[in-house]
Design a protein that fits this description.
- This protein has 139 residues and is α/β, with parallel strands linked by helices.
- The chain has a single domain, classed as HUPs (Rossmann fold, 3-Layer(aba) Sandwich), CATH 3.40.50.620.
- The protein contains 6 helices and 5 strands, in the order βαβααβαβααβ.
- The chain is globular.
Amino acid sequence: MFKRILLASDGSDHSVRAAKKAVELAKLTGDSEITVVYVVDGQTSKEDVLHNTDRTVVEEKRKIRLQPVTNMLEEASLNFRYEKLLGEPGPSIVDYANKNQFDVVVLGSRGLNGLQEMVLGSVSHKVAKRVKAPVLIVK
């Protein structure tokens, strides 16, 4: 049913709840693969560079932010991989999902940047409108 699952995650509480649902979906099939995508937009990238001169420190902080999600996937003994995308979150997720033909896309209803969401529209809304696969938005 859902063998190829795309999980968009930014480390927010909503993305952790989305990861729980992705785990449930993967367990239904048994041999699913989850691809966890984390999108770094231009503003975040600039801030990371300004606050940390060492690139390994920046990457380590990103891994720590996603640790609750990766821990959950490891504990469930699921097959998963991690992909970092660069760009605006909504279009980046849509492009990646459509190019890689996922069976379902799972993401939280809100992310870490509430101000951008209020002004520009939610990432989940953009993804739901444009991804060809079914989309599960978790509150």
